[in-house]
DNA sequence: TTCCGTAACCCAAACGTTTGGGCCAAACGT
DNA sequence: ACGTTTGGCCCAAACGTTTGGGTTACGGAA
């Protein structure tokens, strides 16, 4: 691995040991594994590769970064890594990056404008080759500015403007939720819609409300409530809904954690979830299926979304023109919206 | 921020514009903000600083890294970032790193030996100045080897050998749990102990069992079950416990997610948690307090643990001798272990 | 035989920074 | 007045890599 005090193994040390020039070694070790254009003779190349492997040579990113101007670093900005949705997406990003020899640097923006700015600046100062933003806002002036400045980035999970993005098809997801609840006979429904600036919540809500509208049922404005994407936020909002005299028979939370909060609120009101009231979430977090009352949710391929985002970025960095991608969600019906049935 | 095609602003470009030498600029911009040893005159220094700020100069890490041999990069290896405990700790690490002008690179090891090896190699190839491991194993040959190789690292959350570490005081935490359950009259208890190679589970279990032993109650070996630190693992193990003819009256899971799984299993067995059976977790995840049946847990300052780990590493890198730190956990009693009471 | 092509290398510059040595002039001490 | 310090700056080398441009030497074509 790494020797104690031994001088780090460098192109030069290899070249010297073999009586070659450093540039020859560099070309051999860089060229496509077999016979690059200006590579060395098969024999020499073999000796070089063998010695490099034996010494455990690892190119110094400072050297190559300095020379090439590229760092093979990708910056990833998310609202919070401790949000399971984002950390799972990040795992997908990092996994795909690793396969391409790229390294990712993650940072939290906390959905705060000032923090985004400083963290992005930090990443740029690190000379990342490109960025992936998981904290885009609808109508995002910051991103627009960055784009005109020539910074290369893609969005993940949330879309904004027409910056290239990889997201779930959230309108469809909202529709699936509506279809499910309507199919169970719920005509009096409410939505816990997440914060208004996130496309995820907005699109899921729009899809949901749209489906109901197309079936002649209007979801009133005061039945669409905004809240943070977390448990306590969901609980607070659900409590408000359940306190009202004519409470809904079903609640669609655009996020599993908000839904879990709603579960708690329902219990506080003495309601049995699944019979007295239907509650469903979104994202199909691993937790959802394992809860005491399993939570109906809309499954989204989060890890795959992360992978695709990284791939999109690499294509962008390669100079290609890229298009946004929408990944297909699928319904995961469980006990929280009705009589117990065999889970998917 | 970053201009479109404009040449990046460098020490040289600043020096040229001011008719100075690049080394002068460097010294001014590096020296302790006021009057370094060999800095320039107050006037010149001021001009340099002003222009640097105006142009938005950011030192190129490739250049300085190459010259100094240091990268100001810290590698962080954890089992999984999508594990809330680890991602929260990581947030603490990253937060503290940011304050010191360091950047962290995170990677998942999945608690898999091969993956650890390759990911660590990757981080080392990136020339990180030091590492923080969140996936240590009791008796960890890999870490021992790394240490003798001169790699500088600290451990977080889990301890191993006598490598410097920052962890919760898990024995104490286990004792707090035992004290709580025993105080409620539970003498017939079981432990969901997590995987056997993690010090966290082992120490929590040891503290728990030790406390009972000191009070004359033996927790039999077949009442201490190992499982992964996740919900489905906890559910499976709890199911086994509850299926047995003489089932325990209380279960201590060394992890909140395993406890949530146990909650589900209890429900499957028609038991009402809090009255029919007591279940408690560990870590006091934000979720715990918000669950339909709030989960008793042992609160651990996860974010602070991360911060301390980073600080410990910086001291280590500065050449100081460092000691491990154990942070104090505190009990968070809730409804899942007894009659509803006001939460902490 | 001469000339060209090419395989297989070597040379050298450049990327941006840091840092041990200068060097000059002004200030100071005696 | 003369030597010494020191403030304020410049010089140059080095870190490891990549890459456009040589330079040989040899094989084959004319």
UniProtKB/TrEMBL annotation, chains A, B:
InterPro entries: HTH_LacI, LacI/GalR-like_sensor, Lambda_DNA-bd_dom_sf, Peripla_BP_I, RNA_pol_sigma_54. Residues 9-68 form the HTH lacI-type domain. One of its GO terms (molecular function) is DNA binding. Keywords: DNA-binding, Transcription, Transcription regulation. The keyword Protease does not apply. Gene3D superfamilies: 3.40.50.2300, lambda repressor-like DNA-binding domains. This is LacI family DNA-binding transcriptional regulator.
